[in-house]
Amino acid sequence: MAESAAWVLALDHQLRAAVGERELVYLIEAPILLDVPRSPPYCRQVLVWNDTVLPAMDLAAWLRGQSTQRQEPLAGVFGYQSRPGADPEYGALLLSAIPTRTRVDDDQVCALPKQPRYWQTLAISCFQQGDQPIPILDLPHIFSGGLL
Amino acid sequence: MNGPTQATALADLQAIRAFAVLTLDGRKWLLPQAEIQALESLLDIDHEVRIPRSIGAVAFAGEWWPVYCLSGELRLLSEPPDSRRACPLLDNGADRFGLVCDQVEALTAAPRLLAPPACMAPPNSPIRALALLGDELGCVTTTEHLAALIAAALENADG
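The joint structure predicted for all components is written out below.
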């Protein structure tokens, strides 16, 4: 039985998702967000990190179709590869709480949540944690324009 | 915009040394300075000369240049907001028009241009690059892309 480590992310007060242990590279509390005109409502802003700009994606807004209110804004910086062997690329997700680390066994695999709809667009798999299914995010798809 | 095409477009823009900043509703849009042919006053706009979706025209170099008004999000407006104070005439050799702006400034140094994130801008986006201007963000576009955006708006209006 294979076991691996993951981070569980709070996309808003209710929605949870996960990424692989190595995909979360940095957390920014109270990030300075800069508006980009003509950008989609779920990704209206960028943040400056390591001398470049990263998209600040609000996946809860994309899933729910409306913007998310967060008491204490938090952004996670995530690394991903758009194809095997490619240089790492980075994007940011807006979060509602500090991620929690967990270990996942193969036998925890489960179906994606039925609500909100469209989880299948964002996720490559899903695992059960307690009574909650936790979708595993497809970061290359999310950050390479797959939601446009 | 796919990877190699985006990289080429960015490299082309990075070769440009001088940019002007056009402020629209507080948002900063950067254009190659060489594409600004002249800077006219709003008083020079003849509102009786109407080209579809324009707010009038300016007589310059023996021709009428249509003048358009775009919002900070680059949506065509039929009436200029009170904040508009200048009218640069844009000319890239193929497209010629005026654009009413809040303010027009020349950048004193070439900005460092960054590729717009792929998840924020579709391939036909007029935003060709982003530029950090102190603690603000500027969006880089060109006369060609503004002309295409205006033409698309005209087509949609006709349809």
